[in-house]
C-alpha cells in the first residue's frame, strides 16, 4: 500500500478508537448475530430488521473501496446509495446512523437508525433511513450531523465496511411536487397549481420550482422549461394554442448553496385548452367548454 494511503488509514483508525471508547461491550456482543436462512422478505427497506442495533467497533475492513451518497428530504427520510468495488460476497449489509459523540448534549435524546441495504445493481446497494413514523415530522435540525456506518455480514460475522459523517441539510432532495391541478383554463392560457409535502420550515422560504410543458404527443426533450425563483405553487401559462392537449410537470429545489439537487419530476398533468370560438369542426370541441 502506498504511504499516503497508509497514513490516512492510521488517522482513521485513531479516530475510530476514540469513538469506540464510550461504547459498552454488550453492544459489541450484540453484533455477533448469526443469520443463516434469515427471512429477507420480511425485513423490507424501511427498518433494519435483521440488522445489528449498533455498528461493530472493530476497525474498518478495507478490502473494498467504497463510498456512500445520501439525500435528505428535509423531514424524516434519508435515502442512501452505497457503492463499492466489485467482488464483495456479503449476504446482508446494513446502514447504521447515529449522532457523533460530540453532538450529544442531551443523552436521553440520542437517536440512531438502521436500514437494511438492498442490492440495486452490481456494486450498489440502497436503503432509506426513515427517522420517524410521521413523514412530516422534523427529525433533524439544520446543524445535525449523522455518523453513517455500513456493515456487512459474511459467514454470520458483521464487519464494518466504512464510516462517513454527513450533514443532511447539505444534501437535500425534496419529494416531488404533487396534486397538480388546473384551476383556470381559457383558449390561450391556463393556471395550474400544485402542492409540496415534507418541506422543512428551515428551507420553506427558499424553495424554487421548475416546470416543463410539452404537447401531449411530443417528447419531454422538446419541452419548454419555465423557472419560478420563489416558493410560488402555481404557474400561469400564456400563448397556448386553442383546443390543444398539453402536459405539465414540476420539480422543486431549495436554494441552499452547497449541493443543490432538483427533486424528481412530478407526475405529469394533462390538460386541453378551450377551442377558439365557433366555426371549428365539431370533433375538436370539448363538451365541457360549451357550457
Ligand atoms: C418471511 O416473511 C414473509 C412476510 O413476513 C412471510 O410471508 C414468509 O412466510 C416468511 N418466510 C419464512 C421462511 O419465514
Ligand atoms: C439506539 O436507540 C435506541 C432507542 O431509540 C436505544 O435503545 C439504543 O440503546 C440505541 N443504541 C445505541 C447503540 O445508541
Ligand atoms: C423515502 O424516500 C425514498 C426516495 O428518496 C422513497 O422511495 C421512500 O418511499 C421514502 N420512504 C418513506 C417511508 O417515506
Ligand atoms: C464510489 O465507489 C465506486 C466503487 O468503488 C467507484 O466506482 C466510484 O467511482 C466512487 N465514486 C466516488 C464519487 O468516489
Ligand atoms: C393562479 O391560481 C392561484 C391559485 O388559485 C392564484 O393564487 C394566482 O393568483 C393565479 N394566477 C393568475 C395569474 O391568475
From TrEMBL:
A Pfam entry, by short name: IL2RB_N1
InterPro entries named in the record: FN3_dom, FN3_sf, Hempt_rcpt_S_F1_CS, Ig-like_fold, IL2RB_N1
Entry superkingdom: Eukaryota
Domain Fibronectin type-III: 176-276
Alphabetical UniProt keywords: Cell membrane, Disulfide bond, Glycoprotein, Membrane, Receptor, Signal, Transmembrane, Transmembrane helix
Signal peptide: 1-27
Compartments (UniProt record): Cell membrane
Membrane topology summary: Single-pass type I membrane protein
Subunit annotation: Non-covalent dimer of an alpha and a beta subunit. IL2R exists in 3 different forms: a high affinity dimer, an intermediate affinity monomer (beta subunit), and a low affinity monomer (alpha subunit). The high and intermediate affinity forms also associate with a gamma subunit. Interacts with SHB upon interleukin stimulation.
Function: Receptor for interleukin-2. This beta subunit is involved in receptor mediated endocytosis and transduces the mitogenic signals of IL2. Probably in association with IL15RA, involved in the stimulation of neutrophil phagocytosis by IL15.
Homology family: Belongs to the type I cytokine receptor family. Type 4 subfamily.
PANTHER family found in the cross-reference section: CYTOKINE RECEPTOR (PTHR23037), INTERLEUKIN-2 RECEPTOR SUBUNIT BETA (PTHR23037:SF30)
Name this protein carries in UniProt: Interleukin-2 receptor subunit beta
Amino acid at each position: 500500500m502506498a504511504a499516503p494511503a497508509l497514513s490516512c488509514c492510521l488517522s482513521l483508525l485513531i479516530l475510530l478508537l476514540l469513538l469506540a471508547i464510550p461504547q459498552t461491550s454488550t453492544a459489541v456482543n450484540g453484533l455477533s448475530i448469526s443469520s443463516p436462512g434469515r427471512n429477507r422478505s420480511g425485513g423490507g427497506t424501511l427498518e433494519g430488521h435483521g440488522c445489528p442495533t449498533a455498528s461493530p467497533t472493530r476497525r474498518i475492513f478495507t478490502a473494498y473501496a467504497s463510498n456512500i451518497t445520501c439525500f435528505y428530504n428535509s423531514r424524516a427520510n434519508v435515502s442512501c446509495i452505497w457503492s463499492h468495488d466489485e467482488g464483495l460476497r456479503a449476504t446482508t449489509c446494513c446502514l447504521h446512523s447515529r449522532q457523533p459523540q460530540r453532538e450529544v448534549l442531551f443523552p436521553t435524546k440520542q437517536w440512531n437508525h438502521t436500514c437494511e441495504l438492498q442490492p440495486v445493481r452490481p456494486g450498489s446497494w440502497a436503503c432509506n433511513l426513515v427517522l420517524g413514523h410521521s413523514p412530516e415530522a422534523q427529525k433533524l435540525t439544520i446543524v445535525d450531523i449523522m455518523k453513517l456506518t455500513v456493515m456487512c455480514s459474511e459467514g454470520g460475522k458483521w464487519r464494518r465496511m466504512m464510516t462517513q459523517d454527513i450533514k443532511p441539510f447539505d444534501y437535500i432532495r425534496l419529494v416531488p411536487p404533487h396534486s397538480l391541478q388546473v384551476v383556470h383554463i381559457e383558449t390561450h392560457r391556463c393556471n395550474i397549481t400544485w402542492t409540496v409535502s415534507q418541506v422543512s420550515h428551515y428551507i420553506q422560504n427558499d424553495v424554487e420550482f421548475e416546470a416543463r410543458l410539452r404537447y401531449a404527443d411530443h417528447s419531454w426533450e422538446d419541452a419548454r422549461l419555465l423557472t419560478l425563483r420563489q416558493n410560488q405553487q402555481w404557474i400561469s401559462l400564456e400563448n397556448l394554442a386553442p383546443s390543444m392537449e398539453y402536459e405539465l410537470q414540476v420539480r422543486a429545489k431549495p436554494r441552499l448553496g452547497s449541493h443543490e439537487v432538483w427533486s424528481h419530476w412530478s407526475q405529469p398533468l394533462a390538460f386541453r385548452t378551450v377551442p377558439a370560438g365557433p366555426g371549428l369542426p365539431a370533433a375538436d370541441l370539448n363538451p365541457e367548454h360549451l357550457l
